[in-house]
């Protein structure tokens, strides 16, 4: 089998995952997109493992580890999402902007106006 | 002789000042001993030094400071009759002032710093007197300038004290700048700053620019010794405490200028032009200041203008080429002017006002302060110059010197040829001196009569101008002893000092050796002028009192005497106003312009330097939305961009 | 990169043409198209639950791809872990955050154009790169490389230590998830007992979880 097929498929999956991460509004959908990206990498690992005929099978071992870590990640991610949802009543990424500077900037500007 | 004694004379008060400044705040009890003792010991040491030195000898000692590559500067000591005589005067007056101040400024919270500054002032004057090197002398000269600034501004709560101190500082500095250049030029021409070498060079004709040097030095002398046209700071300096006025007017500061010219007189004798300028300066100063003194209402201002006039006498003597007469008058004047100021302090203390017309309304002021009444009388008679008081002999010696100079046989002694002094200078000084003698007698009589002898017509006005002194005494009590007996200490030389000049083996031996006996013509003319002045002033006072007795408003005899001149004279003939228009206002306008440029132009850059990063920062803040997806987009886009760059580049 | 390829030793002359695909390649391509399509639908659909279901399709297709690449065990783990647990977790998450059922007009954020640009750029860059690098590489699929037995052997002979470390990581993630998802007031202990509540206070308000 041509190596290019799994490699290109992995690249396209990864790009779709990137798009999903950047474009989705719901945090859970973002997490799903992350899973897509992880799976793209998994595909790459498996394909290269088979291609290189690695004696240690590092690619497949790493794939298994990645799957495990992805499971842990989704668990933790969902816990965080639930916590955010409990405190803020929203699961939208662009509404969780407490670390942003926009409101403070407006406040400072107002303060300066008042001082001047 | 032992060098330690003359060295200790300036050092002790300086150490006392340092100790006073260091401990004044924590141990106020130490302030008085630290103020009085070093100065008193210095006075004694100065006297001992003078006695040890004897007459007709000089002492020179020098230790070289770091080599400068140019004319060398050395820590030099030069003692001769002039310096020892003036140092004794300085020590006596400074001690009296310090003792007097302990009582006069008893309740002043800033007494320790005041006393320390007076000590420093005294030390600086000692340094000027003893120094054998012009640069070291300049150090003392400038220290006096800064001390006078602080002391005149002692009551800095008042706007006029602040203005007066600033004015004194600026005006004297205005003279000091050309003075500094004069010193440099002198040092460059003579190849040394040692006074002995400078004089030696001057005697052998080695000075290339004597006129320029003399004129430049004269500017500094005019500033320090309050000669026209830089005299305006001295009357305003009355804003300081009265003992400071006594110190400045009698022994330090103003004496320094005269002393310097006396010291460097051979240099001045090389230039007739400078002597003529000095003579005209002296003449204008003495006549103008005497007229002003006649019009003043403030007791201290009268005395201040009289100081300016007497300094004019000394400058006139120097212009006539006779430094003996100048120093003689300097010492005699130092004694009686210190006495006058200290008595003025007592009187002001008792009367609670500076104004003599207000004093005239106080009943029994003369009985309240008998010591001050009598000693002020002594001082005024000495000022007027009636025999046998000190002022008589010293003033007559000045007039004699002027007369000799007018005849072309100036009493220059061995310092230079008699022909060096132009006859015009002698005539100028002589005429002005006689006129001033008349005017001096008039204003002294007026002061005496108006202040103490007026019939009280009404109780003291509530709106009488009050003295700025904070420590007003209880009228029910006598003045403290420290303020009374110092007057008598100073009254003795005021009365008797002049007699020392009679015999050539007494005072003149100490100086240049020429007799100081007054000539007959000048005695007749001078004393006659003084007596005439007294009589005229008395008549005017009688007329004024008679008018007051008729129920008309009391008038000042000075107003009667001066007539239309009274108004201008009261304001110093508008010199201040002229300076204000010529210098102060343009300077203020320039300062305003600079301020405007600073605010409007320079500050714009400064603000821009602050605001531009602010705006950039604000622009960057817009990127900080808090939206993680935006950040991630930028991150990934950057990563892709880097990947492309690496791929294309490799 | 050329040295890496040379070291791999599996470069063969361009005898294998892309124009004469093998059967495995055809199946791989078909399943690949399915996976890609499912993934695209999953990240673009406006129905949140559908997105999760399309994700199942994509991940399942990937399991088939693993099988085609002879990674048997990995494929089954993929099915078990991803399809079995992850997607279920995601669905639970959707439910617990009360995601709207049906078409949601707000599924995409305002960042969409940027996302499209970045995604397209990365796809273009990486595809160019990968095609350029691996155009003539050939995978020899003969011989089983990922049977369960083989996997067990290498995993527990060469990779034991990372494996155990990973188990610790999983435990930590488990504990972390529990800590995070517990409510702040200490769970059930802090709540008043139901019986007491009924007798003491008739209002049902305190039974609400202490949110906000």
Tell me what the structure shows.
- The complex is a heterotrimer of chains A (116), B (650) and C (212).
- With 116 residues, chain A is mainly α.
- Chain A has helices at 4-23, 27-52, 58-88, 102-115.
- In chain A, helix 1 packs antiparallel against helix 2 and helix 2 (27-52) packs antiparallel against helix 3.
- The termini of chain A are far apart.
- The model of chain A has no long low-confidence stretch (mean pLDDT 85).
- Among the domains of chain B are: 272-570, no CATH class; 575-649.
- Chain B is built from 27 helices and two strands.
- Chain B is globular.
- In chain C, helix 2 packs antiparallel against helix 3 (48-68) and helix 3 runs antiparallel to helix 4.
- Chain C is globular.
- The chains are: A mainly alpha (116), B mainly alpha (650), C mainly alpha (212).
- At the A-C interface, helix 1, helix 2 and helix 3 of A face helix 2, helix 3, helix 4, helix 5 and helix 6 of C.
- Chain A: One of its GO terms (cellular component) is plasma membrane.
- Chain A: It is a multi-pass membrane protein.
- Chain A: Keywords: Cell membrane, Membrane, NAD, Quinone, Translocase, Transmembrane, Transmembrane helix, Transport.
- Chain A: NDH-1 is composed of 14 different subunits. Subunits NuoA, H, J, K, L, M, N constitute the membrane sector of the complex.
